[in-house]
DNA sequence: CAGGTTCTGGACCGTAGGGTCCAGAGCGTA
DNA sequence: TACGCTCTGGACCCTACGGTCCAGAACCTG
């Protein structure tokens, strides 16, 4: 595990990460077993510990890392722009499409955050970093909108970015039992309306 | 379990429910063990199964029921009114105060919903009912505001209610790592601004 | 006090699941 | 071909935890 991994090794390792990610998304961390991962990847126990000496917790951390990257990439190139209304709407659509593609109204990072907060503080901090990064990119977009004069100068980018991200996560939560995207879209669109109206969220 | 419970029995049973609720809020369902509950309540295994023959799942369901009631009661009397701006703000403050009192930025029902969605479909449905009830009360409030002419008639009560509830749940999620209520308040206030501006969330 | 109930204590069981170990296969390289 | 590395299979161990059982204490009622 000091970086010396064969090409085959890299592939196996990646296969394990992705399969674990799917299991976690479907059943949570607690509902994901190493035996399940082993079966899904046609590997053996020893391989899991060969690639992830730290055991399950290390594996989960790698999954969080991987999922975090995937999530941000799914929002490209718009997430790094967000300087026009078109860009915001394209971003919104890409995000909803990404979640739709997952086959379940849940955020890989968000659900991880919920579970980790209750069980694994270290992992929780790790996931929180992803969230902060994401929130920061949204705030940057709002700043660009402000700089371009598209939104009112009184808008607080950080607070609004937090509200938007909250709408995404909370919207997903409500979408889950409905098996429909409408709560997510309602929440998200409401927040985009806030941006559009340039209304200020009072401290 | 056919309703024949002594006064003492009732108390013990209730004690178990509340202690379990605290453990679940702190560590999630998976992180809550019957042995832990037993220790916290100074009871024995047999008592747990005496009062909850269905075992852990029945106990958790009762906890969900109890927490759902507590959550709604904490929002009274405003939740059943919400016909004026004062009422909305008093409701908002009461809700934040309730979460503050829990000592952790998490919703007893919300976190249950997340975990249940991944592990226990039956419980998930049960919790979803609480959420729907809650959402309905918010929607009723919006309708009252509309009827009184305080907000624009183009506002869709159900969509906005969903957005508000999403803001609460998502805001809590972001507040957790920050150990501060500001993300929750930012999200919640943004949504109240939507209500105030009477802006429509397009379908 | 007698009888029946509710309630309580704690020993015990079964199993799921994380983690360990080691022998051997596969594969690259001198 | 010989050596040494990474990679793989699977048997094994151990603990945690949900759940069972039964004997006896506490309590109520006549």
Explain how this protein is built:
The structure is a homodimer of 203-residue chains. By secondary structure, chain A is mainly alpha-helical. The first copy, chain A, has a domain at 57-197: Tetracycline Repressor, domain 2 (Orthogonal Bundle). Chain A is built from nine helices and no strands. Chain A has helices at 7-27, 34-41, 45-51, 56-74, 85-102, 108-119, 121-147, 157-178, 182-197. In chain A, helix 1 (7-27) crosses helix 2 (34-41), helix 6 crosses helix 7 (121-147) and helix 8 runs antiparallel to helix 9. Chain A is elongated. The N and C termini of chain A lie far apart (49 Å). Mean pLDDT of chain A is 94; it is low at 199-203. Chains A and B meet through helix 6, helix 7, helix 8 and helix 9 of A and helix 6, helix 7, helix 8 and helix 9 of B. Chain A binds a DNA duplex (30 and 30 nucleotides) through residues 4-6, 8-9, 12, 33-35, 43-51, 55-56.
